[in-house]
Amino acid sequence: MTRFAVLVSGRGSNLRALAEAAKSKRIPGEIALVVSNRPGAKALEFATDAGLPTAVLPHKAYSKRRAYDRDLVRLLQAYDIDWVLLAGFMRILSEVVVEAYPQRILNIHPSLLPAFPGLAPQQQAIDAGVAVSGCSVHFVDAGMDTGIIAAQAVVPVKHGDDAAALSKRILKAEHKLYPRVMRWAAEGLLDDGIPPDTAARLLLP
Hints:
By secondary structure, the protein is α/β, with parallel strands linked by helices.
């Protein structure tokens, strides 16, 4: 059974979606560890209530990013983690982690990458006046939101949307998309670092 670690920093809504999918047995894998860089993250409360193993690795205890990432890798290896899923983890991973888990780290981002990488992508989409936005699950590399895209979900941008309204709509799509890609990983469909067929990679509204 594939062993996943989910890295979180905030409330953990995507963690909840992933955990529910794994618990339902739709995915031949398990969340073997939830790691947060923030001791007070709401996601940890959910993980504890759900009976998931948790660990806190506070980034403020480290003066060097690479030192933090080395300890993160040691922690992941101690739990025999196969895949790492970033779910609102507000840190950029260095090559220390990327090289330890090549093509085994996924992230979800609230835009249709390569459009609007980085911070505040929902506001970026509104400012650009686009008709559609969405979310992307991508492999993590050394860049910021630059890895190979595994799957995307399209979300309409409605007249009068602000960033909060668009974010809420995109989040619902994230909760459908991320478990799908998690299942692909557990089934070995992502072992070559590329997604399956093109048709399966796009969720339309």
